[in-house]
Amino acid sequence: MTPTTRARRTWPLIALLTTLTLAADQGSKVWAIRTLTPGDPHPLVGDWLRLLLIRNSGAAFSLGSGQTWVLTLIAVVIGILVVWHARRIVSVSWAVAGGLVLGGLLGNLWDRLFRPPSFGQGHVVDFIDYGGWFIGNVADIAIVAAAALIALLSVLGITHDGSVPEDRDADPAAARPDGGPTTPTSPGATRA
Questions:
Q1: Nearest to 139 by CA among 121, 151, 154, 127
Q2: Which of these is catalytic: 25, 111, 126, 129?
Q3: pLDDT band at 19; cut points 50, 70, 90
Q4: What's the pLDDT score for residue 4?
Q5: Distance CA 68, CA 124 (A)
Q6: Angle at Cα 61 formed by Cα 55 and Cα 67, nearest 5°?
């Protein structure tokens, strides 16, 4: 089976997770808009976790407020790059990360494209307040989960095709039980 054939097997998983993440994000935002009143917090776990509806014109931590169209363009470019890279994903773990990040990205991009005040400059609906540190949404949770999974896979050395590359800097002496060289070091040397 070729890598391309194996990569095609991960596309349904990526598409499913992207769709589920996007649906959960947009569904929760519709619920938040219909249920919550802006500026009226609803404690879930004291002040540590509460529901507080806001409309965010910027990125995380409201950075880039007033530059919504730039954030929209950046999200489109990142989305295209994620889809392009996803064509090569064979690993199920990387497919999960790809589906989560793409679903989260599309969830917030949908807001920027189709929510008020105008096309491409819409404000993202945020409603999960984490102790006053920041307010996010389901798309943000998916993106953070994907980032954590990608970091873990990277630390473990697991590539997008599921393999773990050999350590190129390994000590060649460790390859032989006697610690000797694995190849002759001079033209007259012989192998043991």
A1: 127
A2: 126
A3: very high
A4: 57
A5: 10
A6: 65
**DSSP-assigned letter for residue 126:** E
Residue 70: CB atoms within 10 A of its CB come to 12
Q: Enumerate the β-bridge partners of residue 43.
A: 50
Mean pLDDT of the chain: 82
What helix, strand, coil percent values describe the chain, rounded to 5? 55, 10, 35
Residues 6+ apart with CB under 8 A from 164: 156, 157, 158
Helices (H), the chain: 3-35, 68-86, 92-114, 138-156
What residue type is 100 in one-letter code? L
Please check whether residue 164 is in contact with residue 156, taking contact to mean a CB–CB distance below 8 angstroms: yes
Here the tokens at position 85 are: 């890279």
For residue 70, CA distances in Å to 60, 107, 112 come to 14, 17, 10
Annotated catalytic, 25?
no
- Report whether 124 contacts 56 (CB < 8 A): yes
Q: Catalytic one among 111, 140, 167, 171?
A: 140
Residue 129 is a catalytic residue: no
Tokens representing residue 47 in the block = 């002040």
* 42-45 sheet: strands from edge to edge: 42-45, 49-56, 124-129, 135-136
Identify whether 117 is preceded by a cis peptide bond (ω within 30 of 0): yes
